[in-house]
Write a structure and sequence with these properties.
The protein contains 9 helices and 19 strands. With about 450 residues, it is an alpha/beta fold. It has a 9-stranded mixed beta sheet, sandwiched between helices.
Amino acid sequence: MYRGMTWERTVPCWLGLLLTLGGCKRASIAAEPTRDESQRVPARRSATPSPGPSTQAPASATASASAAPAPSAPRADSLLLITVDTLRADQSWSGYEGAKTPVLEGLVRRSVLWERAYAVANTTMPSLSSLMMARYPTELPRDECGLPAFWGSETLAEALTGAGIHGAGFHGHPIFAGAFAPSRGFAEWRLVKEALGRKATSGAVTGADIAAEMVQFLRHNPPGRRFFAWAHFVDPHDSYVRHRDFPPGPSPRRGLYDGEVSYTDAQIGKVLAALEETGLGASTAVLVTADHGEAFGEHERFRHGHTLYEEEIRVPLILHVPGLTPARIAEPRSLIDVARTAAELLQVQPPSPWRGVSLLRDLEGPPAPRPVLIDAPPLVTMTGQRAVLQGKDKVWWRGNSAMRLDLARDPAEQSQETLLPGAAPLLEAQRLFQAIPQVPAKPCYRGG
């Protein structure tokens, strides 16, 4: 029994209207902020080097099944996936001092950290659906609702369940309720009590509830049962609330947000502590990432879903596997790679339609460069946007406008080169998307 939980499989009409209108912002109950590398040594699992990847590394857009793993490749019996809404990549482990995150900072010290990881899109449902299905948002069947539903591809949970791995999801926001939630393949899909009325956009705080239920799940997991457990912590989403034990950071713009990040870090700590207390930590991999970032006026925008600047699309990507040597990897990588990575860790054959490349290839030798594709589909009044990153070069286009940004020379992206139609860098970037079939979105209908 999991006390304080509700099981939801249908969406009432009033919630359908809420989702259609895109109610994923949180009305503040506290004052909002004022609006004003070099390549690292890769990780090794043993002293014997594993064969490196081929010199012709496949792009994430077109990759088929990953190469056969070396005998010493990392393995785990179970996987704990933690995603945090709006968690930016710049945190304490990368030099930012505004948010106190001792739990995640400690996890980074004993994990592999991809220093330049990117979400596939800049809003929640396209990004998480892509992560779970290993496909790009605009190639998936979907609807045009403000918080769109995606379907049409085997999910990570379905692939793992088919291999006998128990799937459990723990969530605290209405967007994870009902038939339109990304719940396919999970044997357990649980929302915190009264989640339908506890919108993150209304100041609801659900992190402690999610952590408590995950702790109970771990403590009651039957001996020998392999599992894939996913929790999405949503508290850092706006509007930002003040936590008594986690005061805001010093920044006038992101101080309250930083306090929410610190609060969420503490809730994640409860889950990781339970993993060790139960003895499951010795056989469980932990992967921590985010659905997208958050803007605080760096480019005259706040929140997310507006641009493809670094603050909105760059996210943490932390992988801890028992016995794996910690490392930091500087090559840019995409969350499109997460599903194949999870399947390989758990020794499950990935479905052939999945895109991406297992991140475990980066642990076999110098990580090979490959392009990162950002695919933000049109949402209600938002125009679709795309970008391609190759090394420190970013080409980004929306409609008839295109630009090129040099992240090596200008990491803050304060200047850009306008690209005219037919410009060579733009054509090269668009060519990488030609391998991705485009599926038109269906009209939004969430009626009962």
